[in-house]
Amino acid sequence: MTEELIAKSAAPLRPRTDSRAAAVAIAGLLVPGLGHALLGMWGRALACFLSVGALVYAGAGMRGNLFSWQSADAFSRLGFVADAGSGIFYLVAKSLEALGPDVSHSYGDYGTRFLATAGVLNLLAALHAYEAAKGHKA
Amino acid sequence: MSAGLHLSHFQALLLFALLVSVALGFLSRREPVERFKYIARSLFWFLLIGVGIGWAMYPFSR
């Protein structure tokens, strides 16, 4: 009897939990750390925001290559997926790189990796926030 | 940011390792002490492997 009551009360909550988790993940994708902030995980939110922000700032400062979604080859499109993972910081990087990329020097090449890492790190953080919102881990 | 940020190889490695270690430490560990240990260990391995690969490539650099 008790199990039936629990099952009945838990069933309607499932879609809401899923949509909330998806909303948290999308928020985290758009603004690094926002997904964790919505869950009240302030330390993780701040760490994500500052780490991704610093990687983007350094990457753009080193004039790394920021891939566009209109890239010709598959490898560049993959680079765009990585870069775009940093959400609004992708646009910040674009505005910071007023002179465009310069990969003729080693630091420009490093900058490209910094920008891609920022995006991939934020994708990982958004996935973590999604899992946390679903109650799988925290 | 027209002047640009000109970091040496080691400075870039150090900055990259520190930022990634901090982010992964905060994401994967909950307790502050565990986080600090994870960050320190991750940073150490990043630097050791980075410098190690650098030295391994040294004979082919000339």
Provide a brief overview of the structure.
The complex is a heterodimer of chains A (138) and B (62). With 138 residues, chain A is mainly α. Chain A has 7 helices and no strands.
Q: What characteristics describe this protein?
A:
A: 138 residues; mainly alpha; 72% helix; B: 62 residues; 2 helices; flat
Describe the structure.
Chain A starts with a helix and ends in a 5-residue tail after the last helix. The longest helix of chain A is centred in the last third of the chain and has 28 residues, at 106-133. Chain A has 7 helices and no strands. Chain A has one domain. With 138 residues, chain A is an all-alpha fold. In chain A, 72% of the residues lie in helices and 0% in strands. Chain B is mainly α. Chain B has one domain (10-60). In chain B, 73% of the residues lie in helices and 0% in strands. Chain B has 2 helices and no strands. Chain B has helices at 9-28, 32-56. In chain B, α1 (9-28) packs antiparallel against α2. Chain B is flat and about 45 Å long. Chain B starts with 8 loop residues before the first helix and ends in a 6-residue tail after the last helix. The model of chain B has no long low-confidence stretch (mean pLDDT 91). The interface between A and B is medium-sized, with 32 and 18 residues.
Strand content of chain B: under 5%
Number of helices of chain A: 7
Oligomer: heterodimer
Biggest sheet overview of chain A: none
Q: What is the general shape of chain A?
A: elongated
Distance between the termini of chain B: 34 Å
Tally of extended strands of chain A? 0
The average pLDDT score of chain A comes to 87
**E-strand count of chain B:** 0
